[in-house]
Amino acid sequence: MCGIVGYLGKREAIKILLPGLKNLEYRGYDSAGIVTLDQDKFNIRRSLGKVANLEKILREKPVKGRIGLGHTRWATHGRPSEMNAHPHTDCKKNLVIVHNGIIENYQSLKAELKREGHQFNSETDTEVLVHLIEKYLKNNLEEALKKALKRIKGSYALGLIWKEEPEKILAARNESPLVIGMKDGEYFIASDISAILRETRKVIDLGNGEMVTLTRKGVRIKTLKGKIKIKKPRRISWNPALAEKAGYHHFMLKEIYEQPRVIEETLRGRTSEEKGEIYLEGIGLKKEELKRIGRIIITGCGTSWHAGLVGEYLIEEYSRIPVEVEYASEFRYRNPIIDKETLIIAISQSGETADTLAAVKGIEKKGAKIISICNVMDSSLTKFSDGVIFTRAGPEIGVASTKAFTTQLTMLYLISIFLGKIKNIISRQVAKRMIGELRQIPKRLEVLLKDEKRIIEIAERYYRRNNFLYLGRGKGFPIALEGALKLKEVSYIHAEGYPAAEMKHGPIALVDKNMPVVVLALRGRRYEKILSNIEEIKTRGGKLIVLATQGDKTIRRNADEVIYIPDVSVPLTPILAVVPLQLLAYHIAVKRGCSPDQPRNLAKSVTVE
Ligand code: AGP
């Protein structure tokens, strides 16, 4: 996830681009860059890290120009560096581009362009796009952009300037957001409203497959097929704080809602349903090495550890490789038995958690290979790993992990299919079916998120309680743990997650009319058993909040509240089931007057031991 902003008007562009970039920093801060065009000359300034670094460079080497583009980067292809910072240019430095998104087929396009003599200066997928436009550019920029975009697979929101037409910005969008702003002869583009809200409240949302030409005469929107689109601007009533959170009151809620999109991003370019193939380019191990894996140890902390527990079920089921899951904070002090056939999978959103880093440090001396599942490129964890598979959740600002968790689950699902195929446990046919089902998840999540009102009602009824129990079996157990963790950290209510069958060995003593019990009772092998657990709670007067599969009427007999989850194959249920629990924790926290984005005593990245 990156942020882009563009300006064409009567003022110095930098006055709009720089504050715009600062408001987009929540989308990524690996590097920042701007370009302005002044007297037929592009002025490009780029820097590693935050916009403040770019600002410093601009103080030393100021730029002029009334047209320009800006970019703040969240690295996906190419490590964070000045070289990989946007804007990127073509060979002749006549075109500049800024881009947010992922170009899936960039490798084959890059090879083709290199054969034709194009010179590349970065490791990014974006640079391919600007060279592709150069390839098709004769004298019509719109046509060249259209031709280039027809060859692109993936997602994009982009801004483009051509030196030959110094009073024009082109922008286009597919799957990544882009808004157009306007005010008295001034025009703007931005990844989201927060970047331009100080300037204008009059905006048009560019749709998927649409491109826009901004000139001093106005705005012209067309589809990539060439059909003109007339769109009425809408008026934004948000204040700047709301705008940064895209209208949500907290980052946590915004990030919960981002899940369908970031799961889609995490899957982008990594599956082929037709071929039943998984592509994990960063895995770092050869097929022969992967074939030899005899045991897997997954390690991580907090929510990442919970993802590991789901991973254990998935990997064992599909690849038949034995898996153990270890708290990194414990594992680091052990003297574990590890050999050359052991694979360590370290999971961390931030890649900076001290215990997780300590757990993998030095492991290679025992001969084991390390693969990390990480959300932050170039973070410390990635440096200790033989292979890194990036989740593409974008920056997670809320302290409570939400979208990072579901993208970790998505990656673990992909890894389990990948290893299952390598170990010849699952057939191509099965892989095809699993990939097909996984690809449906973003749509199912969107349906689920439409039910937020139901969760708000439940939060309203239970937010004054002091204790909660969360119960699940099988893959539902780690989700019970995660649901309880979310509630604890954002609402300060004591909550415990338990395997449902363990309840009778102790926790059932806590159950009375004051104890809400959240039970994951989704369709699956253990369904009948969990119905018995529900009966046991009911008999003791506990209040039952039950997560059930869509269409399950039996459950209503004993449940006080039912939250329905779309009917998907059992291994995929954790990705869906956790979302209402995130929402429940969020709404209970808000009703209790807590601050879900910055809960007391917690830090986003735990870099202490
Ligand atoms: C989750 O909501 C927590 N804030 C916390 O448990 C977190 O998952 C843990 O600190 C691990 O962080 P990491 O994934 O960045 O390593």
List the keywords:
single chain, 609 residues, alpha/beta, eight-stranded antiparallel sheet, seven-stranded antiparallel sheet, 19 helices, globular, binds 2-deoxy-2-amino glucitol-6-phosphate
Q: Would you kindly provide a written description of the structure presented here, covering whatever features stand out?
A:
- It is built from 19 helices and 27 strands.
- The protein is an alpha/beta fold and 609 residues long.
- The chain has an 8-stranded antiparallel beta sheet with strand order 3-2-4-1-10-9-11-15, with helices on one face.
- The two termini are 30 Å apart.
- The mean pLDDT is 94.
- 2-deoxy-2-amino glucitol-6-phosphate binds next to helix 10.
Low-confidence stretches: none
Q: What percent strand?
A: 15-25%
Sheet bearing the most strands, described? 8 strands, antiparallel
Strand order of the largest sheet: 3-2-4-1-10-9-11-15
